[in-house]
Design brief:
Number of strands: 8
Distance between the termini: 5 Å
Number of helices: 8
Strand content: 15-25%
Helix content: 25-40%
Order of helices and strands: EHEHEHEHEEHEHEHH
Bound molecules: D-xylitol-5-phosphate, zinc ion
Strand order of the largest sheet: 1-8-7-6-5-4-3-2
Largest sheet: 8 strands, parallel
């Protein structure tokens, strides 16, 4: 199943509630929430208070992307403030398996992310323990960057590994995804597309509709085997 996952990093925080309501009206299911600590990535974004605040009114699936050093320290906190799924970075975890187990022990879905410079093969040992693999298609830390074309082969490699492993694992991509790049990533095997600057803006409803229509169109054109994703 394909999903557009709007990233609130690009939201207008003066109008966050309104914008989340529009996402819901446009049948978006997944909300991507980028948490940055100023250590694993240079930037600092937001954390638990924002998530618990929007949790009160927003029924979307909260897909929390932790760009945080040694994230196992915070899994309980993010679970309590309303995360449904938590993705950690392989490069940020001294013990990857312990972090994934901590997420599952909270009853949440666990994701594992790799930066553009990390080879696809590094996620292989963990495929039995994850619900999602996130292939970063920009250097994590900022919205509005351009898709790194060299990541396309890595998406394909991860898709092959997921197929070989036979488990039901989402393949998410994040960074520079828009109407021009979505066909490339979908054809390579991605099924969850994070969209920050391409989804949010004053015309958010129009943007989301266009992205969803583009995705549906590409899905129809892909080979039947791929269209099941
Ligand atoms: C970047 C974040 C992304 C970001 C994507 O480190 O992980 O989720 O919001 O923004 P765009 O879609 O604008 O590249
Ligand atoms: Zn993200």
């Amino acid at each position: 199943m394909y999903e557009i996952c709007p990233s609130i990093l690009s939201a207008d925080f003066n109008r966050l509630g309104e914008q989340l309501a529009v996402l819901r009206e446009e049948n978006i299911n997944i909300l991507h929430i980028d948490v940055m600590d100023g250590m694993f990535v240079p930037s600092i974004s937001f954390g638990m208070p924002l998530i618990s605040s929007i949790r009160k009114e927003c029924p979307l699936v909260f897909d929390v992307h932790l760009m945080v050093t040694d994230p196992v320290r915070y899994i309980g906190d993010f679970a309590r403030c309303g995360a449904d799924r938590i993705t950690v970075h392989l490069e940020a975890c001294p013990d990857v398996r312990a972090a994934l187990e901590a997420i599952h022990s909270q009853g949440l879905k666990a994701g594992l992310s790799i930066k553009p410079g990390t080879p696809a093969g590094e996620v292989a040992p963990y495929l039995g323990d994850v619900d999602l693999v996130l292939v970063m298609t920009v250097e994590p830390g900022f919205g509005g960057q351009s898709y790194i074309a060299a990541c396309t082969d890595k998406i394909k490699a991860v898709r092959r590994m997921i197929e070989e492993c036979g488990r039901d694992i989402e393949l998410q991509v994040d960074g520079g995804i828009n109407l021009s790049t979505m066909e490339t990533v979908m054809a390579a095997g991605a099924n969850w597309l994070v969209c920050g600057s391409s989804a949010f803006g004053p015309d958010i409803r129009e943007r989301v509709r266009t992205l969803k229509a583009g995705m549906a169109d590409i899905e129809k054109r892909l080979l039947p085997g791929q269209a099941e994703r």
